[in-house]
Amino acid sequence: MVFRKLPGVSASGMGLRLSQKFVFLLFLSGLVTLCFGALFFLPDSVRLKRIFLSKTEVQAVTVGSDNDVREHPKRPGKEQEHLRGMTPAKGDSKQKTTSADHHGASSDAFSFKKFQKCLLKATLGTDGGRPADPQTNERREKVKEMMKFAWDNYKRYAWGKNELRPLTKNGHIGNMFGGLRGASIIDSLDTLYIMGLMDEYNDAKEWVQTSLDLNSNGEASLFEVNIRYVGGLLSAYYLTGEELFKSKAVELGEKLLPAFSTPTGIPRGVINLGSWSWGWASAGSSILAEFGTLHLEFVHLTELSNNPIYKEKVMNIRKLLNKIEKPHGLYPNFLSPVSGNWVQHHVSIGGLGDSFYEYLIKSYLMSDKKDEDAKKMYYTAMEAIEANLVQKSPGGLTYMAEWRGGILDHKMGHLACFSGGMIGIGADDGAPEKRQHYLDLAAEITHTCHESYTRSTTKLGPEAFRFDSGAEATATRLSDRYYILRPEVIESYMYMWRLTHDPKYRDWGWEAVEALEQHCRVESGFSGIRDVYTMTVSHDNMQQSFFLSETLKYLYLLFSDDDLLPFEDWVFNTEAHPLPIVRKSYHFFLSSFPL
Ligand code: DMJ
C-alpha cells in the first residue's frame, strides 16, 4: 500500500506531527498508569495480584499478632521450585500448593486466642501442677534445681553452641544439625517455661530472636532438626503465643521441603538447609524411625501456616507405608526412597524403628481421634509386634526382641523402653477385649526396663540389654554398657504414673534422680557415663540436649499433678515437646483439610 502525501500533514509516522504524537503518547501512558494503579486500590487486591504474579510469587508470611497476616512477594526462581516440591511424588496432588492458594483474608490466619479457647483445660493446671503432697513437691523442686543447674552451665560455657561439654567446660557443635546452632536452647524453651524458670526462658527467647540463624549451610539430619528444632519451636509457640516461635518454625519447615523431592516422596535422611540447588544429600535407604517421625510436626506446620503442603508430604508417606506389603505384618527399618521397597528385613521397636510406631498412635490422639488410618495402622502393627517380637524371659521378664528376617535377636535397646508408655497411652482405644491386656503389657515392659536399671551397679540403665546366654536385662557386651542421659525409661514411668497412679512409678523416678545426681552430675553440668556397671564412673563429657527437653521434663511431670499439660489437650512429640490436639473448633479451613 502507498501513502499519499497530503498538504499540512507530516509525512512521518501515521501522518501526525511530532508535537501531536507527543501529546497523544503522554495521554496514553497516563491512562495506562491510571488503570493499572487503580487495580491495586480495589478491595480484592490480593486476588488481582495473583492474576499478575504467578502463584509461587506470593508467599504468605505470618507476622505480628493474632490474625495479623501479611503477604510478602518473594523472589521467584529456583528456590521456589524446590519449595514447591519439584518432582511430584506418586500420590501427591497435581500441584504443590503454596500458602497463597489457601490464603485469603486475614481472618484465615491461625488464631492463638481461638486455639486457647478450645483447650479443655488450663495448660499449666490450677497451680502449675504443684502436688499437694510435700514429699512429692520436694522431689519436683529437686528436678527443677537440676534443670537450672544444667541450663546455667550450658549458658555459662556453651551459650549458642548445640550442647555443653561439662568436663572440658566448652560447647559442642557436632554434625547432626548442619549449620544450625543452639539445640539446647530450642530443646529447653518449653521445659523452662513449664517449670516457671522465666528469666532463663526469656534469655532463651531473646537468643531465638537475635541469634537463631536458619540459613545455615551444612548437612543436617531431617529427623533431628524436625523433632528438636521444629518441635521445640512449635511447642514454645503453643505454650506462649509468641509469634516469633511460630514464624521461625514455619520458616524452618519450608527449608525441610526439598528433602521430599525423591521419586517416591519418601524423604532422604540428610538435608542441606543452606543450599536450594541441592535439596537432599547422601545416597542409600531412608530409615523408618526418621521418615516416619514427621507427622505430628508437619500437621502443625500446616495448621499454623495455612499451607497444606506439609500435611500432604506426610500423608504421602503414610499412604505408601499403608499400601506396601509387610513381612509378617512388620515394618522393616530401611526403605528405598527411589523404589519405595524395603531394603532389608530388620525390624526393631528400638533404634531405627521406634518413633514411627509412636507417631502412629500419637497422630490418632492428636487428631482428636479422627485419624482412623493411623489408628488402624497402629493396632495392626501392635498385633504383628506381639505375634513376632514380644517375648518372655526364663526369669519372667517381658521384652521386645529384634527381628532379622525371621530370626530373633534377644536384645532390647534403651530406646525401646519408650514402648511401655506408648502401649499404655494406646490401651484405651484398642479393641475392648484388649484394653486391659495392653495396659498390662505396658506395665510389664516398663517393669523390665526398670529391672535394667536396678540390675546395674549405678542404678542407671545400659544402652542395650540382653536376654540370652543366661543374661536377664543386663548388657553382655562392653559396647552396650554406656548411659547417655537418655529419657525413655523415665518417659514410660511418667505415662504409667498418669495412667495408673501406682506410686511405684514415682519411686522408680526418684531412684533415677538419685542415680543421676550421684553419677552424672559433675561440677559444671550433667554428663553421660561410659559404663553403668562400675562405681568408678568415666564420664563422656556430653550434656545431651534431650536431657533438658525430655529426661528432666518427664521427671518434672512425674512429680507434678496431672493437670500440668493434661493429656486431654496435649500429646508429646518424640523429643517431649508438647503439641496440642487439633480440634475442629479451631480448625479454620475445614473444607480444605478434612481431619
Ligand atoms: C531423642 O532425641 C528422641 O527421643 C528420639 O526419638 C530418640 N532418642 C533420643 C533420646 O534418647
Automatic annotation (TrEMBL):
Ranges of compositional bias, category Basic and acidic residues: 67-84, 91-105
Spans through the membrane: 22-42
Gene3D superfamilies from the UniProt entry: 1.50.10.10
Domain of life: Eukaryota
Pathway listed: Protein modification; protein glycosylation
Keywords, ordered alphabetically: Calcium, Disulfide bond, Glycosidase, Hydrolase, Membrane, Metal-binding, Signal-anchor, Transmembrane, Transmembrane helix
Catalytic activity: N(4)-(alpha-D-Man-(1->2)-alpha-D-Man-(1->2)-alpha-D-Man-(1->3)-[alpha-D-Man-(1->2)-alpha-D-Man-(1->3)-[alpha-D-Man-(1->2)-alpha-D-Man-(1->6)]-alpha-D-Man-(1->6)]-beta-D-Man-(1->4)-beta-D-GlcNAc-(1->4)-beta-D-GlcNAc)-L-asparaginyl-[protein] (N-glucan mannose isomer 9A1,2,3B1,2,3) + 4 H2O = N(4)-(alpha-D-Man-(1->3)-[alpha-D-Man-(1->3)-[alpha-D-Man-(1->6)]-alpha-D-Man-(1->6)]-beta-D-Man-(1->4)-beta-D-GlcNAc-(1->4)-beta-D-GlcNAc)-L-asparaginyl-[protein] (N-glucan mannose isomer 5A1,2) + 4 beta-D-mannose; N(4)-(alpha-D-Man-(1->2)-alpha-D-Man-(1->2)-alpha-D-Man-(1->3)-[alpha-D-Man-(1->3)-[alpha-D-Man-(1->2)-alpha-D-Man-(1->6)]-alpha-D-Man-(1->6)]-beta-D-Man-(1->4)-beta-D-GlcNAc-(1->4)-beta-D-GlcNAc)-L-asparaginyl-[protein] (N-glucan mannose isomer 8A1,2,3B1,3) + 3 H2O = N(4)-(alpha-D-Man-(1->3)-[alpha-D-Man-(1->3)-[alpha-D-Man-(1->6)]-alpha-D-Man-(1->6)]-beta-D-Man-(1->4)-beta-D-GlcNAc-(1->4)-beta-D-GlcNAc)-L-asparaginyl-[protein] (N-glucan mannose isomer 5A1,2) + 3 beta-D-mannose
Entry's localization field: Endomembrane system
Membrane-topology annotation of the record: Single-pass type II membrane protein
Gene Ontology MF, one: calcium ion binding
Primary localization class, coarse: membrane
Binding locations of Ca(2+): 574
InterPro entries: 6hp_glycosidase-like_sf, Glyco_hydro_47, Glycosyl_Hydrolase_47, Seven-hairpin_glycosidases
Cystine connections: 417-449
E.C. number(s) listed in UniProt: 3.2.1.-
Positions of region (Disordered): 64-105
Cofactor: Ca(2+)
GO cellular component, one term: Golgi membrane
Signal peptide positions on this chain: none
Sequence similarity: Belongs to the glycosyl hydrolase 47 family.
Function: Involved in the maturation of Asn-linked oligosaccharides. Progressively trim alpha-1,2-linked mannose residues from Man(9)GlcNAc(2) to produce Man(5)GlcNAc(2).
Protein name: alpha-1,2-Mannosidase
Lineage of the organism: Eukaryota, Metazoa, Chordata, Craniata, Vertebrata
